[in-house]
Amino acid sequence: MKKLLLILILLVSACSKQSTTYSNKLEEIISKGTLVIATSPDYAPLEFLDNNQNPVGSEMELAKYIADKLGVKLKIETMEFAGTLTAVDTEKVDLAISGFGWKEDRALNYELSIGYNNEEGSESSCHTILINNENISKYKTLTDFKGTTIAAQASSLQEQYASEQIEDVSIETVQTIDQALLALQSKKVDGVALSCELASGYANSIENIVTSNVKFDISADGMYSGNVVAAKKGETELIEKINEILNEVNSNGLYKKWNEDAKNLAKQLGINF
């Protein structure tokens, strides 16, 4: 009888532990003491891998800052870009921070923060097309790219810009930027849609690759200009807290300092901005 009673007590205790519920994701993060974020570390200077294969970059510094402000530890999960938002959906991570720009479909399916990294001349304030040097005089306007094949990272903002702003374009979606660059070098595509800053970095590092003079129109981004953090739909308390932290980041110009430091680190790894 005593054994049976002990078993029942243990079962009730176990069920009690398993049934812990939280009213929202923010409460859960603070209670567990850990913030888990997803990123695709192939987009320097925002996120990339150092020589020890650790994720670094300006957005990783932002993630550290957010975790510090929440008073929790940071855990970074690296994956392909297309999987970062899925990880938010399935609650494998709490947030996705991976060079996201505001897109209507993202806003419908996720909670998106206010914009950051949106100063004039910042990585997110300009988007262009990387091309082979021999075609510099051929592609001077977006109209010149009519009927071409453009590589872009799957689900990226650049994929949207290219598909919406270039007539009769064929989009070659890739999982990583490296795949797009190889396709351009082998002339399987006519261009690679990238942020101007990242395109410049690769143009300075890869022979016979240059940045075109073409710029995509990003005027519709409005208050979400720059990059945004993504949370699961409905987690309004969490995104409101993130916005509070981002307002502080923007007001104090913190991201600009992180970005400069990240560029210097990327330069040491062969990407010269």
Describe the structure.
The chain is an alpha/beta fold. Helix content is 40%, strand content 19%. It contains ten helices and 13 strands. The strands form four sheets. It has a five-stranded mixed beta sheet with strand order 10-9-11-8-12, sandwiched between helices. Helix 3 packs across helix 10 (254-268). The chain is globular and about 60 Å long. The N and C termini lie far apart (74 Å).
Strand order, largest beta sheet: 10-9-11-8-12
Proportion of residues in β-strands: 15-25%
What integer is the average pLDDT?
Answer: 90
As a percent range, the share of helical residues equals: 40-55%
Could you describe the largest sheet, including whether it forms a barrel? 5 strands, mixed
Structural class by secondary-structure content: alpha/beta
Number of strands: 13
Helical segment count: 10
> Which regions are unreliable across 5 or more consecutive residues at pLDDT < 50?
none
Shape by Cα distribution:
globular
Radius of gyration: 21 Å
How would you describe this structure in keywords?
alpha/beta, 3-stranded parallel sheet, globular
Concise synopsis of the structure shown:
By secondary structure, this protein is an alpha/beta fold.
Write the layout of secondary structure elements.
Elements: H1 2-18, H2 25-32, E1 34-39, E2 42-43, E3 47-49, E4 55-56, H3 58-70, E5 73-78, H4 81-89, E6 95-96, H5 104-109, E7 110-112, E8 127-132, E9 149-153, H6 157-165, E10 170-174, H7 177-185, E11 191-195, H8 196-203, E12 209-211, E13 230-232, H9 236-251, H10 254-268
Parallel strand pairs: 1-5, 1-6, 9-10, 9-11
Antiparallel strand pairs: 2-3, 3-4, 7-13, 8-11, 8-12
